[in-house]
Every structure is written in structure tokens, then in C-alpha cells.
Amino acid sequence: MNFTNPVLFKELKLRFRSFKGFNGILFFLLAMCIFVFGYIFLTVNLTGTSYFKPSQSFVLFAFLSYIQLGLVLFTAPGLTAGSISSEREKQTLPILLTTSQSSFQIISGKMLSSVAFLLMLIVAGLPVYSLVFLFGGISPGDFVKIFLFLFVTLLAIGSIGVMFSTLIRRTVVSMIATYGMMLFLSVVTGFLFIIVIQMKAFNHMGTPVTSPSYLGQFLASINPAVLFATFLSPELNRSITEMTKINFPIWAGYLIFYGIVTALALFIAVKKLRVNMKRLK
Amino acid sequence: MIEIKGLTKKYGQFTALDDLNLTLDEGTVFGFVGANGAGKSTTFLIVSTLLQPTSGDVIINGVSVREKPADIRKLIGYMPDFFGVYDQLKADEYLDFYGASYGIPEEDRKKLIPQLLELVNLSHKRDSYVDLLSRGMKQRLCLARCLIHDPKVLILDEPASGLDPRARIEMRDILKTLKGMGKTILISSHILPELAEMCDEIGVIDNGKLIAHGSVAEIQKKLQGEKMITVRLAAQSAEAISFFEEQPFVTSIEKLEGDEGVSFIYRGEEAEQIDMLKQAILNDLPILSFMEHVTNLEDVFMEITKGAD
């Protein structure tokens, strides 16, 4: 990581100078507060008790984790899918490309500035999030695990956004492509997983199938919602292993897949940012 | 210093640049003249490592654009014909960002930026947001940006386009200063007389082909085989008109409107022109003046590109 990255510093400066950045944090925290305090208020009132049980605290934690995941999945494309294409549209890209900065510096600067902004949103929400610790029921390990995988997801979706932004000339089209890819990874893979598991469960004679379902395991491993569900409900991990007949942790598959996706997307973006002068066309 | 060898750029069947060959010495100010779509910007984009050529190469200071584009970027300062600026960035921050992009240490940038702003007469705008500057100011700031890493070569694509007359003059003065600093400058413009004033060499490009190249004087000389001559007479004289009509190298003779005299196109040699004038005087024609029109660069450009299609 290059801390003297000029693009990163310029992007951070511009992002925090605009009202958009400030408004983003304000509305996110406001939504979090309304949700958390609203949930506590309703639970206490509906149950008729004047206290908040640890089991209810866990439900709140689960909801907040999915809100954070939703934030990452829906904000990361918006922040990264215009990173290069908007420079192209504003006619600032040719000048940037004639500077001495390497393509990797430019891409990583763009990527990290968006990631930093989203991380800041997540960190800004930590005080509200950590309210669940007050009532117990959550281990710090769960908390760290959730944040670590949120970060992995953020990097992957961010790098896909930067890649599409480099490959596609127009920001609108790049946004559509990135959101499409995000929806495929987070929603379509979930449906496909259910279909594959159902189809694999019984053969055409109606007898149970004992062979492993690699595709089912793969689809479960790349779906962020399934991964978070396995963190929040470890029994689900065992159920998936029984369904797919493959004993391989979902989180490991997730880490490998999105690690490769991040590296590949960044590699393509770096390679395609500038024209290859050596190759004859 | 700059050697362009067989540079060709094709888009499918369309040839935007056709076997361009050019050699420029260090410190030369080269003016690229051509109509829109002639191939000027394509050439500049390739030299600036922004566009891949179909064939050919550009060598700057012994470095090939094809082989070492990263090294070329350190040698050049490129100003596109159309460019944008970042919102919410001040003039000095704009230069600081590009200075950092060229790896200039922060301490050096702090000293350099006020000097550059002074060079382009923008010292008073250092705290202004760049998107709020006028077009002329943005052009000057962009020029300062080109100079931040002290490049040997400046590539300026239509730097004066869209500027009002005052801004044009300011830009021209800055370019003269840069010429005085010994920079090799490649500049394209539609304002041909302005190029003539500051360029050492001119290249005329049409349909992707370099159709004329040389000093301004050399290119003008190409048109010397045909010149327009105006003869003013003290009184309209049929004798004078018939005298010039009978001359062997005179064509397109016309009476002057609102004045006594004639104008005609002359295609003869200089010696024959002297003889014609001598004979006219010996014949007692009432000649007040005998004037050869100096062809300006616009005429030269129009003439050279006339038959290029």
C-alpha cells in the first residue's frame, strides 16, 4: 500500500470537502439510531418487560450485521463504478494518464479512497453497533469476524466497480454492470444454491443422493448473505455440509473466491487503464 | 530531439494518420497546421502515450514511445485541446496534485508552485477554486501544470482555442517566454498568423498526410510561382490595360473597383517581372504603384490544402 499515493489524497480531500460525504454519514447514523433505539423501544414495550434480554440483543446484532452488509453491497458500487469513467467524462483522465504515476497507483488510489470512505461509515456506526454489548449475548469474536468479512466483501465489490469503470466508458453503464454483478453474487447465487440443492437432494427415482454437490457448495460459499447466516447461526454450517456432502468451511471458500475476484478485477483494471503502446494494432 | 518515423494510425478502413515522418531539433517551436480531423490531435495523442499507433514510432531524446512510454511521460508536458478540472480543488492544490503525481518532493513543490503561478499570471488566483476560473485562466493553469516537472517537450493541442483576443495575446506571450526557456514545443492551432509569429517550423497536415514542412518562409516560397499583383494608375488607361493583357505570364486581369488600375495573377520568373515593369515605365504608362501581395499563412494553408483531397 502506497501512503504517498497522490490520487488517494486528492480523492479523500475532494470527498470530504463536499456536502455529499457529510450527508452520507449523517443519514447513515440517523438510520442506524432509529433502527436500534426503535427496536429496543418496541421490544421493551411489546414484551411488557422493562429490560432487554441477551437473546433479543443477538437478534438486534444480526439485523445490524445485515444492515451493514446491505450498506456495503449497495454503496460500494455507487462509490467505485464511476471512479475512472467519471474522470473520462470530465475530461481529466488524459492529463492524469500522462503523469508519471503508474496505472497501479491510480487504480489503487481510486479504490482505496472509496474503501476508506465506506470504512469510515462503518467505523462511525460502531458506537451505535456496540450498543449490543451493553445487553450481552455477543462475543467480541463474532463482532471481529463480521467486520473482517464485511471488509473482504467491500474490497471485492469495490474492485469489481473500479474494473467496470475502467472498461466501460460511461459511468451510468458501469454502475448498471456493477450493481448487476453485485445482485448476481448476493441474490442470484442464493436462489441457484437452493435450486441446485433441491435438484441434488433426490434423483428421478425419488431416492436420496449421496454424491457431493460441488456446485451447491460453491454457490453457498460465494453468497455474502449465506456466509453471514453461518456466522450468526453456526448450525446452518452443519446443515449446508449435510446438504452438499462437502466438509469445507463456507468462510474459507468465501475468502478464496473473493480474494481471487479482487486480485483479478484490479489486475484487469490496471492493465486496461492505459493503452499498450508496445503492441501493434 | 523528436523523431517521428512512419507513424500511421488506422481506425478500420479509415486512415487518420498516414506514414508521418518528421524530425525536430531541440528547442524548436513546431506549429502543426491542419483542418479539423486532419490528424494533428491523433499525432499528439500518440506522442503523449495516450493512443496506440498502428505502425511507426516516435523517439524523444533517444527514448521510444512504443518501448518506454513511462519514460516518455517524464519528458513531455501535454495539454489537450479539451480538458476538465476537478471541482473543489484550489489552483495551488491543483498544481500540487500534479506535482505529487510526477514524484516531486513536497518541499520542492512549495517553492515551485508560486513560481509557476507567477509565470502564467495567476498568482492572485492561487486560492481560487479551479472550476470557477475563466476559460483563459484554466488554459494558463493547465499550461503551468504542463511545466511542473520541467519537461523538455511541450505538446500543446490548440492552446488558444475558445479564448477571447486578450486571453489569446496573454497565451501567446507565455509561449514566447517558454520558447525563450529553450523548450521544444509542438503546438497546433487554427490561428495561423499566430503560429507564424512564434514557430520556427510549420507542418501542414491534411487527411493524415504531412503535405508541407519547413520554415514559414520556406512554405511561403512554395507559392512564389504564382502571385497577385496590383497596379494603381493615375488615370484609367485603356493602353495600360491592353499592355498588361498582352504580357505572356499574366492571367485573370481585372479592373480595380473604385480605383484606377488593374490587378492580375502573374506566373513568370522574377527577371521577367522586372522586364515587364521596365517596359511599362518605358511606355509612359501612368503607374502610381506596382504592388505584389504578400501571401500570409492563411493563403498558404488554403493553397496547399486546396488540391489535397
Superfamily (CATH H level) name of the largest domain in chain B: P-loop containing nucleotide triphosphate hydrolases
Share in helix of chain B: 25-40%
Question: What's the arrangement of strands in the largest beta sheet of chain B?
Answer: 6-7-8-3-9-10
* Unreliable parts of chain A: none
**How many separate structural domains of chain B?**
2
Sketch the topology of chain A as an H/E string, one letter per element: HHHHHHHHHHHHHH
For the record, give the distance between the C-alpha atoms at the N and C termini of chain B, rounded to a whole number: 32 Å
What radius of gyration of chain A results from the CA coordinates? 22 Å
Average pLDDT taken over every residue of chain B: 86
> For the residues shown, what is the average pLDDT of chain A?
86
The number of strands of chain A is 0
Q: Taking Cα atoms only, what radius of gyration of chain B do you get, to the nearest Å?
A: 25 Å
In sequence order, what are the helices and strands of chain B, one letter per element?
Answer: EEEHEEHEHHHEHEHEEHEHEEHEH
Strand content of chain B: 25-35%
Query: Please, how many helices of chain A?
Result: 14
CATH topology heading of the largest domain in chain B: Rossmann fold
At CATH level 2, the architecture of the largest domain in chain B is 3-Layer(aba) Sandwich
Please describe what this structure looks like:
Chain A is mainly α. Chain A has one domain (6-273). Chain A has 14 helices and no strands. In chain A, helix 2 (19-47) runs parallel beside helix 6 (103-124), helix 3 (54-80) packs parallel to helix 9 and helix 11 packs antiparallel against helix 13. The radius of gyration of chain A is 22 Å and the shape is flat. The model of chain A has no long low-confidence stretch (mean pLDDT 86). Helices cover 37% and strands 28% of the residues of chain B. Chain B has 11 helices and 14 strands. With 309 residues, chain B is of the alpha/beta class. The mean pLDDT of chain B is 86. Chain B starts with a strand and ends with a helix. In chain B, helix 3 (91-101) crosses helix 4. Chain B has helices at residues 40-47, 69-75, 91-101, 106-119, 135-147, 165-180, 192-198, 216-221, 238-246, 270-282, 297-306; strands at 2-11, 14-24, 29-33, 55-60, 63-64, 76-79, 153-157, 184-188, 201-206, 209-214, 227-233, 250-255, 261-266, 287-292. The longest helix of chain B is centred in the middle third of the chain and has 16 residues, at 165-180. In chain B, the strands form 3 sheets. Chain B has a 6-stranded mixed β-sheet with strand order 6-7-8-3-9-10, with helices on both faces. A 4-stranded antiparallel β-sheet of chain B has the order 2-1-4-5, with helices on one face. Chain B folds into 2 domains: 2-215, Rossmann fold, CATH 3.40.50; 227-306, Alpha-Beta Plaits, CATH 3.30.70. The interface between A and B is medium-sized, with 29 and 37 residues.
